[in-house]
Write a structure and sequence with these properties.
The protein is an alpha+beta fold. Helices cover about 50% and strands about 15% of the residues. It contains 12 helices and 12 strands. The strands form 2 sheets. Strands 3, 4, 5, 6, 7, 8, 9 and 10 form an 8-stranded mixed sheet that branches. Strands 2-11-1-12 form a 4-stranded antiparallel sheet. Strand 3 and strand 4 form a beta hairpin.
Length: about 400
């Protein structure tokens, strides 16, 4: 189809064409960035924690003046006696729970070779097995690997690091036997685990969410009050309910943290609650924006069809088929939408740069632009279809009578 007459018609309606093109440009910019934000949040919500979430829960106590050794003994005995409990152990934190130990590490004792900020999981005997962590290199901790906790971790310990952290610290090398330090604490890698997500996400972005270290520790002073329970998935809620009751009876001087004393699955749902809400809001924004854009296209096309009835009638009288009229309006819409998406691509990157500077979001992948372009082309063609079909249905005789 010759587009010269269409361009000529659009030039005679510059303002209306420009307004609808700018509306499409705005829709393109918001659509691309909103879809990217949704994809990012969905990816985060599918974060692999590395633990057997369906079988795990925690009981957390707050107690300032408790005898920590005695508290651990009473709690392990009380929780271990609940029917259905497969194992109970002391741990400092769990994925999606309240974080307890984050520190920067270095690859030399002097701290000159800084290597990032990582999460330190400290677990008592049986906790690494209860978590269900998958070992990819090395061997599981032995009894002699569990050492006294000095403040927050053992001062000199064998540790198990995640695959992501090992690849970050020693890319292309066997991590077993490598050492790292944080302040005066010294660690030597004895094994690699597939995944162990940080409780509150990686502060350095998605790539750091799995930068975790598992440190075997002996329960005692400075290592008490948080207990990991493993049971059958179908008994987890009942066991945790009984565990909360047992904890209050076993340690009446302590305060049970109701918010944290739940299953890992419930903690995960809470952790991503805001992401779920934001995803729904963004979907609503996209739907509203596309609806407004579609209505704008329908309104403009309907107006032009009514305005051009004489022109349409003349063309039909000169031999133009219904298909020719339909193609005319579809081609006209395609040109307007194309003009809008070209401007919209520039706006999309501008909006993304503002989001990156304001909220530390990652850069918009380039493939979102053609996806947004195709979506708006389809939307434009669907929106203009009804007015175009009405135009194509105008008979030559009726058009000439309206003269």
């Amino acid at each position: 189809m010759d587009i010269a007459p269409i361009l000529s018609a659009l030039r005679r309606h510059r303002l209306a064409t420009l307004l609808i093109a700018m509306e499409i440009a705005l829709a393109c910019a918001v659509l691309c960035n909103a879809c990217f934000l949704i994809a990012t949040r969905v990816q985060q919500m599918h974060l692999q924690s590395g633990v057997d979430e369906a079988s795990l829960g925690q009981i957390k106590l707050d107690c300032i003046d408790c005898n920590e050794v005695d508290l651990n003994a009473r709690m392990l005995s009380a929780l271990g006696g609940i029917p259905g409990v497969q194992s109970v152990s002391v741990i400092n934190e769990v994925p999606f729970g309240q974080h307890a130990a984050t520190a920067g590490i270095a690859l030399d004792p002097a701290g000159r070779k800084r290597a990032g900020v990582v999460e330190f999981y400290v677990g008592g005997p049986g906790s690494i097995e209860a978590l269900g962590l998958k070992l990819t290199e090395g061997s599981m901790p032995k009894a002699e690997d569990y050492r006294a906790v000095n403040g927050w971790v053992p001062s000199d310990a064998q540790v198990w690091v995640t695959r992501a952290l090992a690849d970050h610290l020693w890319p292309g090398e066997n991590p077993l036997g490598h050492e790292f330090w944080t302040d005066t604490f010294h660690f030597r890698v004895a094994g690699v685990i597939a995944h162990l997500a940080r409780p509150n996400g990686g502060q350095g972005g998605v790539a750091t969410r799995d930068w975790s270290v598992f440190v075997p520790g002996l329960p005692g002073k400075s290592f008490s009050g948080n207990y990991l329970i493993r049971t059958q998935p179908d008994q987890l809620q009942r066991v945790l309910r009984d565990a909360r009751v047992a904890a209050v009876k076993a340690a009446p001087e302590a305060v049970l943290d109701q918010q944290q004393s739940r299953s890992i699955g419930d903690l995960r749902n809470d952790f991503f609650q805001q992401d779920v809400a934001m995803t729904r809001i963004l979907l609503g924004v996209i739907a509203a924006l596309l609806l407004v854009t579609a209505l704008g296209i329908v309104g403009l096309a309907s107006f032009w069809v009514a305005q051009r009835r004489k022109q349409i009638g003349v063309r039909r009288a000169l031999g133009a088929t219904r298909h020719d009229i339909l193609r005319y309006f579809q081609t006209e819409n395609f040109l307007i939408v194309s003009m809008g998406v070209v401007i919209g691509m520039v706006l999309a990157y501008g909006l993304n740069i503002w989001l990156m500077l304001s909220y530390e979001l990652p850069s918009l992948p380039v493939y979102y632009l053609p996806l947004g372009m195709v979506a708006l082309w389809l939307l434009g063609q669907m929106s203009v279809l009804a007015p175009a079909m009405r135009a194509a249905a105008v008979p030559p005789v009726v058009a000439t009578r309206t003269e």
